[in-house]
Specification:
Elements (H helix, E strand, L loop, with lengths): L9 H16 L5 E10 L11 E2 L1 E14 L4 E6 L7 E4 L12 H13 L7 E7 L9 H16 L8 H18 L7 H8 L4 E6 L6 H4 E5 L7 E7 L9 H17 L4 H9 L4 H8 L8 H22 L7 H13 L6 H12 L4 E5 L6 E7 L3 H15 L5 E5 L6 E2 L2
Parallel strand pairs: 4-6
Antiparallel strand pairs: 1-3, 1-13, 2-7, 3-6, 4-5, 7-8, 9-11, 9-12, 10-11
Helix pairs in contact: 2-3, 2-4, 3-4, 3-5, 4-5, 7-10, 8-10, 10-11, 12-13
This protein binds adenosine-5'-diphosphate and magnesium ion (MG).
C-alpha cells in the first residue's frame, strides 16, 4: 500500500547526498545544501499574470552535496536518475543545449553568470524526498538547493537576506524557463528560497516590485486551530514541459492584450475596488473570444480569492477558508481546464469524508491535491481517498501532512 510519505531529517538527507557524492567522485564533498518543495494554498496559475499566490515550503527537501572544481566542468549525479554521471561544460550552456535533468542544475549557474556573478565548475550529487513530478515542485527544490550552494561557494552573499534570495529565485526561474525549457512562473522558486517556518508566504508578482513588497509572511498555524493540511499526490502523470501550460500562458497574454492591460492583474485589481465584482465581471470580460474568456475569468477570480483567503488568515478565521479552496478547484476545473479525473476524485473523496475544503494544487494535469481537515479526521480522510482510488482502479496515491517549513540553506 502507498502511505504517508515521511520527510527526511537534515541528517538523513545530508548523509544520503554525501554517500552518493563519495561513491561517485571518490572524495568527500565540501558541503551539503538543501531546499524544500512547496505546496500552494491558493492562487494557482496567477504568478505569470503578475498576480498573487500563497504557498508554504514543505518539510520534504532536495539535498545537493557539492565541491567546487578548478575548471569550468560540471559533473552531476542524482539518486533519482539512475545514478548515471552526466558532464556539462559551463561554456556550452545556452537555451536548447542541455538535455534532461542537468538543465535544472547548470541552468542556475548559467543564470547567475548572466546576472554578472562569476561561477566555477563543480561536482554535485543529488538526492531528494520531494515527490517527483507531483506538482510539489521538485524542479524548484533542485534549482534552489543548487542556487544556495553556488551562492556560498562563490561567496556571493545573496542567501543572507530576502532581497538576495529574491535575486537567487530570479536566477532559478531563468534556469527553468530558458535552459530547462519549462515556461513556469516564479512561485515555486520564490517559495523554496523565501518562505519561512510556520508561515505561508504571500507572493506578489507585480513586475519590478521591491523585494520588501513582493513577499509577506502570513502566520499559518493549523495545529493551533485543531486543523491539518493533507496533501494527496495522485501519481497521475504530470508534465509541465508540454504544450498545455504554454497554451494557458498564451491565452492569458491574448486576453490582456484584448482588454488593453499589461496583465490580468490589472483587471483583478479593478474588480477588487468594485462594490460587487461578481456582477461586473461578465461585462468586463465581454470583449474576449469565447475560448479565452474562461481562462481570464479563472485568473481574475483566483487573484480575488487569494485576497479573501489572506483576509481570513489575518482575522484568525482559518476554519473559514474551506469554501474559498472549493471555489478555486471549481474554477481550475471548469474555467482553466487543468484538472483531471484523479484530482477531481481526490478532492471529492476528501470533502465527502469531512474535509473543510479541498482543491488541486500546482500546475495541474495530474500532480497533487490538498485538503484542509480537522486533525481528528486525518486518518478518516486518508482512508476515504485511498478507498476511492482503489474503487476507481487508479494507482494508489501517496499522502503527506504538510506544515510550513524552512527555506533553502546549508544542511551540512
Ligand atoms: P515538479 O516540479 O512538480 O516535481 P517538474 O516536471 O517541474 O515537476 O520537474 C520535475 C523534473 O525536475 C524532473 O523530470 C527532473 O528533470 C528534475 N528533477 C527534480 N528533482 C530531481 C532530482 N532529485 N534529481 C534529478 N532531477 C530532478
Ligand atoms: Mg516543477
Amino acid at each position: 500500500m502507498s502511505g504517508v510519505l515521511p520527510a527526511w531529517t537534515t541528517d538523513e538527507g545530508t548523509a544520503r547526498a554525501t554517500t552518493l557524492f563519495e561513491q561517485t567522485f571518490g572524495a568527500a564533498p565540501l558541503g551539503v545544501w538543501a531546499a524544500p518543495g512547496r505546496v500552494n494554498l491558493i492562487g494557482e496559475h496567477t504568478d505569470y499574470n503578475a498576480g498573487l499566490c500563497l504557498p508554504i515550503a514543505l518539510e520534504h527537501r532536495t539535498f545537493v552535496a557539492v565541491s567546487p572544481r578548478a575548471d569550468r566542468l560540471v559533473r552531476l549525479v542524482s539518486a533519482q536518475e539512475q545514478s548515471t554521471v552526466r558532464e556539462v561544460r559551463l561554456g556550452d550552456v545556452a537555451p536548447g543545449t542541455v538535455e534532461g535533468w542537468p538543465a535544472y542544475v547548470v541552468g542556475v549557474a548559467w543564470a547567475l553568470e548572466q546576472a554578472g556573478h562569476s561561477v566555477v565548475g563543480f561536482d554535485v550529487a543529488v538526492d531528494s524526498c520531494v515527490p517527483y513530478g507531483a506538482g510539489l515542485s521538485s524542479s524548484a527544490a533542485l534549482e534552489s538547493a543548487v542556487a544556495v550552494a553556488l551562492d556560498d561557494l562563490a561567496g556571493l552573499g545573496l542567501g543572507g537576506d530576502d532581497a538576495g534570495r529574491a535575486a537567487l529565485a530570479a536566477a532559478c526561474v531563468r534556469a527553468e524557463n530558458e535552459i530547462a525549457g519549462a515556461p513556469t512562473g516564479g512561485m515555486d522558486q520564490s517559495t523554496s528560497l523565501r518562505a519561512t517556518t510556520g508561515n505561508a508566504v504571500l507572493l506578489d508578482f507585480t513586475p519590478g516590485l521591491d523585494p520588501v513588497d513582493s513577499a509577506r509572511h502570513v502566520p499559518f498555524d493549523l495545529a493551533d486551530a485543531g486543523l491539518a493540511l493533507l496533501v494527496v499526490d495522485t501519481r497521475a502523470p504530470h508534465a509541465l514541459v508540454d504544450g498545455q501550460y504554454a497554451a494557458r500562458r498564451d491565452a492569458c497574454e491574448r486576453a490582456a492584450r484584448t482588454l488593453g492591460v499589461t496583465s490580468l492583474r490589472e483587471i483583478a485589481d479593478m474588480l477588487g475596488r468594485s462594490e460587487s465584482p461578481a456582477d461586473e465581471l461578465p461585462a468586463v470580460l465581454a470583449a474576449l473570444d469565447d475560448d479565452v474568456r474562461p481562462r481570464a475569468r479563472h485568473v481574475v477570480t483566483e487573484i480575488g480569492r487569494v485576497g479573501t483567503f489572506v483576509g481570513l488568515l489575518d482575522a484568525g478565521d482559518v476554519t473559514e477558508v474551506g469554501p474559498v479552496m472549493d471555489a478555486s478547484h471549481a474554477s481550475l476545473r471548469e474555467d482553466y481546464e487543468v484538472s483531471c479525473p484523479e484530482l477531481d476524485l481526490a478532492v471529492t473523496a476528501a470533502r465527502e469524508a469531512g474535509a473543510l475544503g479541498a482543491r488541486m494544487t500546482g500546475g495541474g494535469f495530474g500532480g497533487s491535491a490538498i485538503a484542509l481537515v480537522r486533525a481528528t479526521d486525518i486518518a478518516a480522510v486518508q482512508d476515504a481517498v485511498l478507498a476511492a482510488f482503489a474503487d476507481a482502479g487508479y494507482t494508489p496515491p501517496d499522502l503527506l501532512v504538510a506544515v510550513p517549513a524552512a527555506p533553502a540553506g546549508r544542511a551540512g
